[in-house]
Amino acid sequence: RPLTFFVCKRVSSFIGNSVSTFSALQIALREGKKTSWYNSRSNPLLESFMKVQNIPVVYTYTEESQPMGKYLLKVSITSVRQLFGMDIDINIIYHGNKDELFLEWLRKRHAIIHNHEPNWLPMIDKMISYADHDRSHLYSHRGNYIGTWQRIDIPLFIEEEYVILLDADTVVHKKFDLSTFGLEITPGIAIGQESETDTNPANLGVALLNVPKLRETYGDFLKFVRDHADRSQDFVSGPSDQGAYLDFYHSYKNPYDVLDLKPSRYVRRLDKVFNIKPYYTSTNNFYERFIIHFHGLKPHEILKSLMGYPKHELPRAVEFLYDLMFQRDSHELVCLALHDFAVALVDDKDNMQQFCEISFTDLKERVVCTYFFKMVAATPESGDCVEILKLRGYKKFIPCKESEEAYYSSTPEAKVAKFKSGYDHFLHVGKEQGKIYPACKRGPSS
Q1: Which residues pair with 172 in a beta bridge?
Q2: CB 397 within 8 A of CB 440
Q3: 349-373: per-residue pLDDT in tens?
Q4: Taking the model in full, what pTM does it have?
Q5: 35-38 and 14-17: which strand pairing?
Q6: Measured between alpha carbons, how far is 233 from 213 in angstroms, rounded to an integer?
Q7: What are phi and psi of 203, to 5 degrees?
Q8: Theoretical Cys-Cys bridge with 359: which of 236, 300, 307, 308, CB 3.0 to 4.6 Å?
């Protein structure tokens, strides 16, 4: 038996019995890398005693995506390396070969780059052509849309039992391993909720994936997606790849079940703490967070809103989040999210500079951007990030006298009782009519 153990130890990969001490030790020696098991989905000894089973991280990226995606992805990868060091594998399903500077950046961070040349790109163009663009912002940019679909090819590249898939707009706050997800780990996929009060799995921004099950079902899943594209048919449970995953795996081996978003055998819900969004309001959930997901407003859009950029300058699909996040007096939770982002952003000065340059056209505001994130990163996470901006003369947007007078002058019909200001009229009526609300001055008065 000892001879078997030491011979097995020298083999690069391992498959064993999940309830065997021998197997648990072999998996522990490999820190969970290149290992698989049978008999149960989890490893009880590793879950309760030897918590050493790291879970690989996977991202997808295409060079056709919008530039901001690359800067956010760098921050997310940096957050993983800051917490885990080199103890965890970071996989990038990478589409493209021209951005050598970024590829070199990834190599220096010891990311495992998987060259991805998907054969389903014509299907993507077909789906964009018939999609309801009001249903999701993803349809508005082909590159971003490709990036979301890249995840369906994960089982073609990854050999681990489980991986955690992260969107580029995530930041990891606290370490985890496979034991963190408990003994009743998903046999298929486990994903986060869409809203804070939701109890259903609905958002793929953070996903725990059983790779063998995805590999087993890969052909059927791809055929399922192609059939929808051929028929110009939307998915029931959501737009894009998210809807495809939910529709297919909820129905897997249950073809006659009525589709809904409730957890099912192959679709489980991750705990909220793995997908905390900046517009959530539960202090307890925030302080227990493992991962921040900038779903909706991205960090630069949150910063702009705190600096006085008005609501209507946000992308239309996320305008509604402005009121959720910035109408409250306290911005404690928003500042927590920005603190996590800042700690990873300032670790790479070049990326911080590029992030601020693409976020702001005004040179003074670019300087404020770098100053802000440096200060936030250097203060305790409970610090008041809004106060940092106030000291530089920036505050949230309030309709100013000059802009109100100019708008009323050009739009006299706005002076009706049901609108509390000219800006309120602009948001509800004037914007749709093509009216312009003059910009208020931002920043210090002198």
Answers
A1: 291
A2: yes
A3: 999 999 999 999 999 999 999 999 9
A4: 0.90
A5: parallel
A6: 25
A7: -120, 125
A8: 300
